[in-house]
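We keep the chain:
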Amino acid sequence: MISKRSIATVLILLAASIGWAQDSLNVTRIYSHISTSIEAGYIAVQNNVAFVSASQVGYYGNIFVLDFSDPVNPREIASFTAAESAYQVDIFDNLLYVAGGNDGLIIWDVSDPVEPQPVGACNLDAWTTDFVVSDTIAYAVGYGEGLFVIDISDPTSPTEIANLDMSGQVSGLAVEGDYAYVSVHGYGMRVVDISDPVSPVLLGSIDMEDDCNEPAIAGDYAFLPTASGLAVIDISEPTTPTEVAFVTGITGYVQILGSRAYVSTYFNGESETRVIDISEPANPQHEATIPAPLGRFTLEGTRAYVPYGKKVYLFDFTEPLEPAMLGSYRAPGFYNGIQISGQYAFLADDEIGLRIFDISDPVAPELISSCELATGGGRIVVAGDYAYVCEWSDVFHVVDISDLTSPVCVGSTATPDMPWDFAVAGDYAYIACGDSGVFVVDISDPENPEGVSSIETPDMVFDVEVQANHAYAVGRQLNIYDISDPLSPVEAGYSATYRGMDIRVEGNIAYLAAASNGFELIFIGNPGNLVRLGRTDTIGEDNSVDLTGNYACVAFSDNIWPTQDPGIKIIDVSDPSNPIAAGYYRSQNVANRVVARGTYVYAAEGAFFTIYDISAAMPVDNNSRSLPTTVMLHPAYPNPFNPTATIRFDLPEASAVTLTIYNLQGQTVETLVNGQMLPGVHTVTFDGSRFSSGSYFYTLKTNDFVETKQMTLVK
């Protein structure tokens, strides 16, 4: 059996074969998870497991694998790139067949649906969108002008054995017995004799002025959906198919169940399904209307699986005129934000809201859980047992993640404008709200977050970073505010010279992803006199930044046509006055946000959650600082502090870690870390704003290490 690590490698190699950019230096992409929404896809089902394609061009041939064994709570158990694009799918004997657009017909082994394995492929001279499997032969059509016949007796080597010109744009296909029925846009339907698959013969045709979708066959009749209605065609004589009835006003996709035809259509702007009694095919009668678009549904027993829009629905067809919905799965959207905490990645998804991955193996992360939010997620911050998620629709959410397998949204509040990004410090969240400045939210009661103050900024603000008693707001200029009293922030400094999309602050230096100004390092030790220490140019726009050791990772977009290849770049900032490029990777999608930890970069790249290995960009001596050789607990900084102190510790290897704060009586004040963590240099902030002045102890425990140090809070 191929491991998940091997599957990840196979998928990356497959991605490379379908045109993903691979221009790089000292940076390697080791993992890429697809999140793209399901739109108007196809579905195949086996043993309550659904394989759903995202059929739109540009969606990278996504296949989502969904477990519907619990119909009320279906879950995604895998996703993979099957081909350049993915349209029709079907499954036989644990083999998944995929109409792969320019890649032809693709075959995958899904005997273990969690770890699908590529088996074989047959390239065709057409953009393949539809097919039918019949024993050891597959018949395929697409945006070309023919019917293709493929021998699939050896799935590892499917072979085209015949093709027949259809003289038009083929739109659909049905196979019944010795005949194939091919719909052709603007030409109607062709009947092909396939009794000898090696020598298919065109027998007859019926012309239609309208465009047609794929036909459905029942006995001696074909039901052909056209742009103006449903045509019923007598095919008892294959050489002279004859229209015997036409139902106007219903268009879309048709499925036949017994003596009924289910036609998905639009009526008065609403999606619905018309049920037509076809017991007398020449006299079809409207029998019922189901207020749901069933589309290209697939039956398994009495269950119908329906991909529609951004959801997959499950219906019980025990009552065929009144099918009952059992459950639904909401497809993921685009990743806009990302945070790493311990061995977990938390991603903000604009369709679902929050998704959590176990990244203990960075080559093969595992999706643990999701939390649906009303209109998805934009940016995210994780602190303690809570994840804070901002939506583009002017909402700030608090999600309880104390049980990572079952995150729950416990509180929400409105923001005055669209939140671009935000920071959390102690009992407050500081939200960059574009033209509305910085909105301050009290999160001391997670179930009742409440806006308590606002900072009017001179211009738009895109991101906020908080360190100690200062908030650094960056947008069309850089503003610094004293937030010793979060209810009444006071301006401490600003500069209209420096601007950016994202900011990180470490010590006395602010690191700016400064859009078209590139990447800038600003000395902020004197807020009233900000000084640029160094910068690097960009050929597009730098939009996100994070730090790991002496290196900055910067996400950029490339506005230079015709390349327009975005990516990430690694910059050595050990000398702030002379930042030096150390590596880069050009990918296919702009990284909305990046997080750097040790020798890995984690990126929310729209359609993808991607992990990069940047170890080659770090010289050996600096690598040793990023990946320590021994466990070490560093002194808190600053010390004394008010109200926050930064605690740093080094891990040479992955370990269970607790970092606990105690008072002089030995009572636990707060547990800052409690879980498995990856190797590297880690920093954690202790916020003492809720505690009294005095001495406190902080203890680091790992698998084989314990150390305690002291720090003093002075208010």
